[in-house]
Amino acid sequence: MDYVCQMQNLCTTRTLLSHGKHEEKNMSRRVMTLWLVIAVATSFAAATESRQPAGKLTAAEIADRNVAARGGLQAWRGVQGLKMTGKLDAGGNNRPTLPTPAAPKSAAGMPAPRPAEQVQLPFVLEAKRPRKSRIEIEFKGQKALQVYDGANGWKLRPFLNRMDVEPYTAEELTTASLQSDIDGPIVDYAAKGTAVELNGTEKVEGRECYKLALTTKSGQVTHVWIDAGTFLEAKMDGVPRRLDGKYRPVEIYLRDYRSTGGLQIPYTLETRVQDAAVGGASSSSSISERIILDKVEVNPPLSDALFSRAQMDAAASDKPAPTLAKFSPR
Fold this sequence. Notes:
Layout: H1 20-43, H2 59-69, H3 73-77, E1 81-89, E2 120-128, E3 132-139, E4 142-148, E5 153-157, E6 162-167, H4 170-177, E7 195-204, E8 207-215, E9 221-227, E10 233-243, E11 246-260, E12 263-274, E13 286-298, H5 309-317
Antiparallel strand pairs: 1-2, 1-13, 2-3, 3-4, 4-5, 5-6, 7-8, 8-9, 9-10, 10-11, 11-12, 12-13
């Protein structure tokens, strides 16, 4: 699957230790996003910096160079599975705390304080063709699980005192079904029915990049910025996030590429939610969250049973009895 896209829906930064209903939505989105973001990151991995200026290239030529640079078509066709371990930001005080309308200037009208530093949660993400994924996130000694078998998905959220396996929502199923497989949307894009268009060049963090628009056969459009020197993925659109009652644009930045199994993988991914109207006033500030990979394994042994409902039920049966928590499940 699209490894950056499966990590990309990390929602607005709020602490995981309070605000029950908000945190239920936030944590669920973090789990879904983890896979969205990581999926595209591997799919756009590249190999070496080009020693010659790119010159004027067509969208198709840029796509071809991207595929060749990150290992080549045959190399990606040979990738049947991936396993990634790392940490993800799950909350911190990188966004202003807003007073409630009832008491705009009093301490009583303020939400509970957020930690000054980002809370980081360990995770393991496993993916297998076709479109199978499994995400495990550790939180306060408990493990949240989310599994997609290519057609159906389930989740287990003990940190919310939800000890039973729950199916994906309709929205989560739609999001999962729209993602590319492990090799991402550019590899074999024409065969997949995806159109690629060049929308000029733009600077991304000081580097000149080609801006590509990828339109799938279902009509979904994603913009991808390819570094004009390395042909590495520098940035891409994320799925808009709901923040303070409005949907905000999302950007995903890919950094720290390392050679892994003959491919180049970005080990740091930063998701930025553009906070255009905090507190009702226009602002250029953004909320950022990072995903840092510690280890990536290419073609590890992954049983199909790992991505099954039965596996989820077995995990649920091992969970301890519910305890009082600071969350308030709906």
